[in-house]
Amino acid sequence: DMLVLGSAGVLEWGRAVRYEDPIPHLDMLVLGSVAVSESGLRIGKGEGYADLEYAILRAKGAVDDSTLVVTTVHDYSVMEISDSVARQHDVPVDLIVTPTRVIPTRTVLPKPQGIYWDLLTEEKIQAIPILQQLRPLDP
């Protein structure tokens, strides 16, 4: 019955999870998107946070290639986007849900295999405490 939207809802209804806390394997992960292609390429707000969240969950073993990645968008947000713009850290979606359609993407785009440290600035690492914890552990 509770709806958690945005950081205000998380602060009110969520609970803190420490890195040491176990996270069960997720069968499905829902990511927000600004736009998405039927081939599974998603475009977010441009800061890379959804991709980074996926990478952190991957580092924790909570997601892997079998995890179904879903996005919900309006019909007009499904558009042609060239797969050539995809980067190694971009999380492709397996399923697109709109108000009028459910679109299996059958994506061939690879899911990220972890955190790509060379793509992160020191400023971003310092701003996100879990990255500071993960960096010494990641080979």
From TrEMBL:
GO terms for cellular component: cytoplasm. Pfam families: 5-FTHF_cyc-lig. It comes from the Eukaryota. InterPro entries: FTHF_cligase, FTHF_cligase-like_sf, NagB/RpiA_transferase-like. This is 5-formyltetrahydrofolate cyclo-ligase.
